[in-house]
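Why show two proteins at once? Because comparison is the fastest way to build intuition. When a single record is shown, students tend to memorize it. When two are placed side by side, the eye starts asking what differs. So, the first record is below.
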Amino acid sequence: MTNALSETPGGRLDIQQEVLPFAIVHGTAITRLPRDLYIPPDALEVFLETFEGPLDLLLYLIRHQNLNILEIPIARITEQYMVYVELMKEIRLELAAEYLVMAAMLAEIKSRMLLPRLADTAEEDDPRAELIRRLQEYERYKQAADDIHALPQLGRDIFQAEVEVPLMRTVRPVPTVSLDEILRALKDVLARAEMFTHHHIQREPLSVRERMAHILATLNADKFTDFTNLFVAEEGRQGIVVTLLAVLELIKESLVELVQTESFGPIHIRVATSCQ
């Protein structure tokens, strides 16, 4: 059963009731409970979703009749308010407790406004002032709540996109260093050495064994060194050739190892792990 409020031409609220089926079984609407059906006392609860409290009801009655909140007709509002309270009593008395408190307040304000005022108390405060203040404050909070509710919300209006990244394991094999790669790197070193070519007044002998010892002393077993850093361009072509021969001899004797991380990439050298 549903209840609806409608205003009569005389300004009173009329309660209209409409019977609704509480269940539909095999296409047949059921409006009456079976006689042998037992329902515990606390099994059913009535929730009033129309109004959130007595102030919400008063604000609805004022807006519904386009009344000025600063000039509330207490007698008219009280009468319409009591109609709704009586309706709540019929549905469930426990839910009308806070509404009854507001009804008592409205009755007090109404009685105070009906009393005649003496000349020396003509400037007495309006009995409706406290109620008007509470209504205005409630209206501000209600409007702020509506504005916040209208903002986009995550999970209601905005949905966060989530993508599960598959676990990918890639193995990058270390390319082997061929003699062609060494010659290409040597070509770049020779090209830079040409820029430092000069004539020597006195020829200095260069020893491959001495250069091998120097390279082993320069390299570090814990980290790689750029292959091109072994060559000194100022020594000219002869010094570069001696350094290359020394590196080849060290490779032949498995004293050093060369590594190239990618094709046509730079070559790195370090002391062989077997020599540590």
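Second record. Ask yourself what differs from the first in the token line.
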Amino acid sequence: MATAKDFQNHLKPNWCPGCGDFGVQTAIQRAFAASGLEAHEFMVVAGIGCSGRMSGYLHTNGFHGIHGRALPLAQGMKLANRALTVVAVGGDGDGFAIGAGHTLHALRRNIDMTYIVMDNQIYGLTKGQASPHSGVGFMTKSTPYGVIESPLSILQLALAAGATFVAQAFSKNPDELVALITAGIRHQGFSFINVMSPCVTYNHFNTYAWFTEHLVSLASIEGYDATNKKQALNTLLDHHDLVTGLIYQDREKKSYQELLHGYSATPLVEADLRLPQATFAELLAEFG
């Protein structure tokens, strides 16, 4: 059986020392090992940004897409090869700004895959601009007088869009993150996991200490039921989205693949796509 180290390649990550993405990478490797699958059975699709480097640091099949387009690429790969366990990774800028439309429709479409977002409330790779998750008043190079727009509530949006697996974690708490990624991979449908992953270089407000003080574990809320969407939404509202754990899971809703008419049980990569000669001749005759 594969171990976490088996999912790490020879490339040394060049994230800033202390970046939360190190913890996310370690958690992904541990979760992949816990799945019982081998490296060649995974496809990791990344977007653009610091988090986008993830696909190059893991010993799996990997694809580094363009800005905001990790999800359509990942969904296409899953539909073409249903045998693959597909995991898309990105940041809050990649997924909630230029890729926001793709994120919304992936949440409601419910293709069987996992989406992990490393949320640092800032654009790190481009040297510190405000992201859709930056708080009001947050001062950056692009907002020298402070952010005046309300931050996007992606967790509430996910519930409203009909997502069947919604979770949030903190890169400082690897055991919980590993458990959530493992559960997300096993979930039959689209799994969305938002990870608070502090940027130690450009975001000096949303720090490890800040998250440690403000995040509330859902496990500490007596009677919390992750199958109750109304309770999940009210809990997010009560705690301003600053919770960790499994927020909501719907095990009853069928995945996109289960509902797609004519979706072959044979992966497209293994299908015989040759056109019978008689059919080819018939098509040519139409243009005669």
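One difference worth noting in the second protein: The radius of gyration is 20 Å.
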